[in-house]
Design brief:
Carbamate kinase; Archaeosine Trna-guanine Transglycosylase, Chain: A, domain 4; 34% helix; globular; binds glutamic acid
């Protein structure tokens, strides 16, 4: 048997639900699950990231996709998710396959301990040949703390389990160099540097929340994590095995270069910001140049309500994100330490500990292939008096 692979498959709402009736596309689901069951029998571990809860729940809350507000969608997700899982469970049982549901939020992915718990649960499910079906827990996620789209969620999951491949199924065949409705559009079958394509891709699908842009962002995250991404049409028989066996056209985003350590990959693939620090340009350059942490003398301003162990995004004075790292202090402690630079740490915060805000070993210098997150607005920052 060929080497067993970890395969993450992502299915968008437009494949799962009819855009008019907002009901399940049962035939599609059946074909998909039969293909995945076969791959599982061949020994592969499979995770399915499935959208569809919002689209399928809208009828119950009496809304159409175009006029549903955020609360309607959260309620619709609560209605649609059991419909979705019920269908998956029924179809999977016809193929003697077991499935499990995992609903996660952006916060779960961004907090290191919860991230590792999700990973361990998935690894345990694999041991019993159960396929986890993952979706964002839309009903509990607040607007600011949403992953937002399942493309990036699936990339996070792929990174988490160190998958061999992420297969994003959609309604188009893959990536084109411009709008595919343009007669001159050329199909791109292989992408080396995903970040080079981020600019040319826009567009939102009718039912889901992503378009080609979020697929490229997901591929970029996966690439940084050493995971190959395949973007392919899902409207075909054996939608996953036909791409894995190279039987049709699709876009492959290759893994290039060396992959960083799991901690650094986790730091690079962030979905949300819990806090930020602005440091002097001189220090920002020193961080970029090499092994250098951030001490309290270096902090110019602080933003966010964070706790010890959260990830801080570090900006230079121009507002360019230069690094990310795990903080050794909460936002209140960081503020006190930065304001009382001359006092011993113990006298400021009441316990003895190291004095650097972010240690050099817990810092990731952002490179071109990482997606920066914009600096917060000026009025959200608290400036540390010099
Ligand atoms: N979590 C949403 C849902 O299940 C979909 C998000 C997306 O399609 O990107 O409907």
């Amino acid at each position: 048997m060929p080497k067993k692979k970890k395969i993450v498959v992502k299915i968008g709402s437009s494949l799962l639900a009819n855009s008019e009736e907002l009901t399940l596309r049962y035939a599609f689901m059946s074909g998909l699950i039969s293909d995945l069951a076969q791959l599982q029998k061949e020994g592969h571990d499979i995770i399915l990231t499935s959208s569809g809860s919002v689209a399928l729940g809208l009828n119950m809350v009496g809304k159409r996709p175009e006029d549903a507000g955020i609360m309607d969608k959260q309620a619709a997700a609560a209605c649609g998710q059991p419909l979705l899982m019920n269908a998956y469970r029924q179809i999977a049982s016809e193929h003697n396959m077991h499935v499990a549901q995992m609903l996660v939020t952006a916060e779960d992915m961004e907090e290191r301990r919860r991230f590792l718990n999700i990973k361990n649960t998935m690894l345990r499910l694999f041991k019993s040949d159960i396929m986890p079906i993952i979706n964002e827990n839309d009903s509990v996620a607040t607007r600011d703390l949403r992953v937002g789209d399942n493309d990036r969620l699936s990339a996070k999951i792929a990174q988490m389990v160190e998958a061999d491949v992420l297969v994003i199924l959609t309604s188009v065949e893959g990536l084109y160099d411009r709008d595919p409705s343009d007669a001159d559009a050329k199909f791109i079958s292989e992408v080396e540097d995903v970040s080079a394509h981020l600019e040319s891709t826009t567009g939102i699908s009718e039912l889901g929340s992503g378009g080609m842009l979020t697929k490229m962002q997901a591929a970029n995250m996966a690439q940084n994590a050493g995971v190959e991404t395949i973007i392919a049409s899902g409207i075909i028989e054996r939608p996953v095995s036909s791409v894995l066996k190279n039987e049709r056209r699709f876009t492959r985003c290759l893994v290039t270069g060396e992959t960083a350590s799991p901690l650094k990959v986790w730091l690079s693939n962030r979905l949300q910001v819990s806090g930020t620090l602005v440091v002097s340009d001189a220090l920002a350059n020193a961080i970029i140049a090499g092994d250098c942490g951030i001490s309290r003398e270096d902090v110019i301003s602080i933003q966010g309500d964070f706790t010890k162990g959260d990830v801080l995004h570090v900006y230079n004075e121009q507002g360019t994100e230069v690094a990310r790292g795990l903080t050794n202090f909460s936002s209140d402690e960081t503020m006190l330490l930065a304001r009382h630079r001359d006092m011993p740490v113990e006298d400021v915060i009441g316990y003895k500990t190291r004095s650097d805000i972010i240690g050099a070993e817990n810092i990731l210098v952002l490179e071109e292939n990482h997606l920066p997150i914009d600096a917060p607005e000026k009025d959200q920052k608290i400036v540390v008096p010099m």
